[in-house]
Amino acid sequence: MVSRVSSIPTPALPAVVAAINFNVAITVASAEWKLVDCQSNRFLYDIRSEVLRYRLKSPSRFAVPIEVGQVIAQNVDQLLYPHLSLWVGFYNFGRNPVFAICRPAIRMRRDGSEMPTGSIETYSQKRGSWMPLEQFLKTQFPPIKNTPVGASTVFEWWGQNGQFFNWPGLPNELKEDIVRHCYNPLPRVMINRRRGPVLAQEVTEKFGQWVTLLRVSSEVRAICLRICFVGSTGIRMEVKEPGAFKKVIRRLNKCHQMLLPGGLPTDRASQQTMELYRLWPRIYPELQQYATLYHAIRKIALFMSFLNYMHFFRVTAGSFAQYHRASWVSYHMFESMPHLKEIQIKLPDAREDSEDSERQLGPRLFHDRPYSCPRTLHRLIYERVAETLAVHDNVRVYNFMEGIEETRFYQRRQEEQAKLKITLHEMEELYREDRGGIQLEKWVSPGAGDHLGQIGRQPTEDPFWPPRCRCPIRCHDFLFPSII
Fold first, then answer.
1. Among 317, 364, 329, 326, which Cα is nearest to 466's?
2. pLDDT band at 345 (very low <50, low <70, confident <90, very high)
3. Own/partner pairs, 99-108, CB within 8 angstroms, 24+ separation
4. Per-residue pLDDT for 402 more than 70?
5. Domain boundaries in the chain?
6. For residue 396, what pLDDT band results from cuts at 50, 70 and 90?
7. What's the pTM?
8. Element (H, E) at 139
9. Would you say 281 and 333 are in contact if contact means Cβ atoms under 8 Å apart?
10. Which ranges of 333-452 does DSSP label H, i.e. alpha helix?
11. What is the rounded CA–CA span in Å between residue 49 and residue 55?
12. Neighbours of 458 (CB within 10 A)
């Protein structure tokens, strides 16, 4: 089948421009190359209408005048309309004409026939292919940038585009700024174009190149964040060490959700109210308009070392409690995540993470081989997990040394859940109904015990640490069996 492009007879160049090079500007008078309108083909008016439609899209485009004329010595009246290709010149009053071939764009039907699409294509000799007319005009007649358009040009553009402006389509914030400027013009403010650090990569990475949707309006931002929060994955955090987790908490707490009106504090009283919700969102659910992106976390995955797990879950075996510090982040942070749905905990690998560090903040954990006992360390961690996270429904722990340890964990978890006098859901209902709690005899920081914060005290030695393996089959032999 012969292609339509090759079958179209290319119109001969007029004699006056027979040696035109598209890459070289040549001064040609308009009377020497273009036909008068009464002799031009009717397809020329379709091209002019498309050019005008392109210019009316914005004042910056309208500020660049574009005229279109048919080249002399081309008679195309005898050609059928679907196969029409017109040799025209695009020009304005400040530059030489740009010659190009224009034709109606068509698409092929299933039966092989051709059907016009209503748009116009232009042949670019530089690219050696056809392109839409709008793309051709953007390349050859770029709109004015970084320069204000004159008032007369804006007035003319406003008159030719039907004097229509999509006011209902503007964001509410922009409408307020426009109205405020009309009755009280604000002084010009210089904007610092330097971009600051991205504070919420966990959210912006999900949108990719569409991250600017979060800045369109409050309504669009609320829609985007709700879809992001309740999606298939939601906001999922991976924690490898408590220090990095604390930095993430501080970073996300700086980003307000602003899903509800009044989400930003405006005075000292609202700042204190916001601080109440930041610390105890389950107790004050009526203050959820102050929620930050930190409160939107749905899933937490922990991948820590033995020592970090013991500090995070506040293990107290032996004299380990003396190494805890009140300022260190711990499992109490889960209480400030009102929408936390799942907690995943991967126990440390007993084969790889089995050595102490010289400057670790804690006692020795591993005995000299082959007497070190990672099984005991695993038990200290998952028993503490079963005790402290009993109020949370979906807690999954994996990477046990063997299946019996996993069974023991879930049995211990059931025992701890049976001891609960009140569940997390019941506690939220209690505070929601009674709007408060009980008065304490003395001030107690939530999650802090008497043994925390004893900085400067010399740690006492404890014979419990490091634990010596007394398993029926030594952990070393179980993990590294002899090769026969």
1. 364
2. very high
3. 99/17, 99/20, 99/22, 99/71, 100/124, 100/125, 100/136, 101/10, 101/11, 102/43, 102/47, 102/133, 103/8, 103/130, 104/43, 104/46, 105/132, 106/4, 106/82
4. yes
5. 4-159, 201-365+376-435
6. very high
7. 0.59
8. helix 133-140
9. no
10. 374-388, 403-419, 424-434
11. 10
12. 6
CA 331 to chain centroid? 27
Contact 99, 25 (CB under 8 A): no
Res. 15: pLDDT tops 50: no
Phi and psi based region of residue 39 (left: phi greater than 0; alpha: psi -120 to 50; beta: remaining): alpha
CB-based contacts of 248: which residues, under 8 Å, 6+ apart? Answer: 237, 239
* Residues 6+ positions from 314 with CB-CB distance below 8 Å: 321, 324, 330, 331, 384, 388, 449
Q: Quick count: other Cβ atoms within 10 Å of Cβ 256?
A: 16
Strands, E assignment, 159-251: 235-239
What the block records as the tokens of 348 is 């440390």
Neighbours of 115 (CB within 10 A): 10
DSSP classification of residue 372: B
Distance (Å, whole) CA 466 – CA 363:
7
Q: What are 142-148's contacts with CB under 8 Å, separation 24+?
A: 142/64, 143/58, 143/60, 143/61, 143/63, 143/64, 144/60, 144/63, 144/64, 145/60
Number of neighbours of residue 274 by Cβ within 10 angstroms:
19
Give the span between the Cα atoms of 63 and 144, in whole angstroms: 7
